[in-house]
Amino acid sequence: MRNTVILIKHQELINYIRNKVAKFLICRGDNITKTALEFWKAGKGREEITLKDLEKTLSLSVFNDQNGGFFHTSLIDKNLVDFFVPFLPVEEIHIVQCAMAEMKARNLRPNRDVANKVARDMIYFPKDERVFSSTGCKTVQHKLNFYR
């Protein structure tokens, strides 16, 4: 009888987790970039990309990624992930915003000219169009040191 109570309580816990806790999977990668580029080529902004535009592709991509931690996992196969949170590629305007935020974090007076120089000197892709930053905002704080 005691084991039955434990089993019931365990099942209640599982049901609670399934029903009350949203499971998120944060994603980045080629499929997101491909979708963002398709939107850009169609004249649409990255802000117009919805989760619906990415969700099926993300699910399959994560499930089939042999180098990822979710390769053929039942979390994906049994639809136990409630939300996929995509990290969209970063455009030049976002690099400017990162540089301004970094200056503020350093207790410096934010300078739009300096932020624009940092953004201008970043590497973007596709190479000829310079649409998205290759490194996102990761190298902004180091580049900012050259423009003080």
TrEMBL record:
Top-rank lineage group of the source organism: Eukaryota
InterPro entries: TOR1A_C (IPR049337), Torsin (IPR010448)
GO MF: ATP binding; ATP hydrolysis activity; kinesin binding
Domain Torsin-1A C-terminal: 94-147
GO cellular component, one term: nuclear envelope
GO BP term, example: protein localization to nucleus
Protein name per UniProt: Torsin-1A C-terminal domain-containing protein
Organism of derivation: Xiphophorus couchianus
